[in-house]
Amino acid sequence: MALLGDRYEIIQEIAFFMDQVAERGGCVTQLTAGSGAALDQAVHAVSYAANPSGYTPMGILLNDVVDLDLTRQHINFHKNETQKGGKVTILREGWVVTNMVYPGITPALQDPCYVSLSGYLSNTAESDASSAGASKAIGRFESTKDEDGFCKVYVKLPVVA
Predict the structure, then answer these.
(1) Alpha carbon 12 to its chain's center
(2) Cβ of 5: how many Cβ atoms within 10 Å?
């Protein structure tokens, strides 16, 4: 479990699709874009980028994305699951308590928060400073990590250059 129930959601977005299995709590980046409002275009997609360099961060994933055989069982809506290839909820502004902090990183109070590899969060920007997404802070760390690796992160997107 990568997100605890302790959170404050100011702005959410439900316009994007996600076509990979993922655990909630990390930062998704824009994979492809649709045209117009793109509310029901499957090409309007996000993912956990293996390397966020060159991708635009979109926010914190609030759903678990699962790949279930829906002829045998149904999605557990109480666990906030969504089927692979379906729409996901993304936190654009607010704070969450997550353990999706890059391994070995120890954020301090008020450190800037950046997208790292595979959707993890970090207090250091990726090395490619020319990257549109990876070099911009998406928010800040509001606490240090506890003994279970969870910390509070405030997110405010979009970040204007």
Answers:
(1) 12
(2) 7
- Is 8-156 assigned to CATH 2.40.300? yes
CA distances 91 to 127, 138, 146, Å, are 25, 11, 22
60-76 exposure pattern, b = at least 16 Cβ within 10 A, e = fewer: bbbbbbbeeeeeeeebe
Distances 33 to 28, 54, 94, 144, 151 between C-alpha atoms, Å: 14, 14, 24, 35, 31
Rg of the chain, C-alpha, whole Å:
15
Residue 132, pLDDT above cutoff 70: no
CA 138 to mean position of chain CA atoms: 10
Helix (H) or strand (E) holding 47: strand 45-47
pTM: 0.88
pLDDT band at 1 (very low <50, low <70, confident <90, very high): low
Q: What type of residue sits at position 65?
A: V
